[in-house]
Amino acid sequence: GIGIQEVQLPSGCPGTEAKCIVCVEKCWGPVDCSWGIPISEGLACVKMTCVYMPPENQFKYIWKVLIPNKTAHVLPNDSAVVEVCRGTHSVTFQCETQENGNIIASVKYTVYATTEMQTKKSRRIETGQSRRTMTDVILVFCLVTGIIVTAGVIFAMIFMIL
User: DSSP labels for the chain?
Assistant: First the structure.
């Protein structure tokens, strides 16, 4: 996919420097067709982004709706970011980032239906209470331990000074 790589001297650095960067350049790897996380997600709409690097207009973006056992439907939107509103069924979107007609990156998103989001939200609330309680216990334990260690170090320093 799209990225930046540092080109370093292969035979080490002059002097005492540990890392010598000759230049920073674009790198192109295999197309990463992974599952993305939306920029923002609400109960009504979802905002998704293609894989890109600045400047955004150097690439072409192809948004598709993936339909099982059918040909994908290409959307007229050609920007790096798209916002869609939830419907009655889950829909999978794919964005291909292209340069000179070649696909250089790809990412997919599943936009769940409004009813599924409400079900997931209520499930999160039910299971979230026990997770939150355990997280609170761990945080309080770490805080108390930190305070005790800090107090011990301060007393040790005062004892050494005296």
Answer: -EEEEEEE-TT--STT-S--EEEEEEEE-S--EEE---SEE-SSEEEEE-S--SSGGGSEEEEEEE-TTSPPEEPS--SSEEEEE--SS-EEEEEEEEETTEEEEEEEEEE--HHHHHHHHHHHHHHHHHHHHHHHHHHHHHHHHHHHHHHHHHHHHHHHH-
- CATH number for position 98: 2.60.40
Domain co-membership, 79 together with 104: yes
* Contact between 90 and 109 (Cβ < 8 Å): no
pLDDT single digits (tens) 71-125: 888 988 888 888 988 888 888 999 888 888 888 888 888 888 877 665 555 555 5
- The amino acid at 90: S
Please give the residue range of the domain that contains residue 152: 114-161
- Of residues 132 and 44, the one with the higher pLDDT is 44
Same domain, 108 and 55: yes
Question: In this structure, are strands 102-111 and 33-35 parallel, antiparallel, or unpaired?
Answer: parallel
What is the distance in angstroms between the CA of the first residue and the CA of the last residue of the chain? Answer: 62
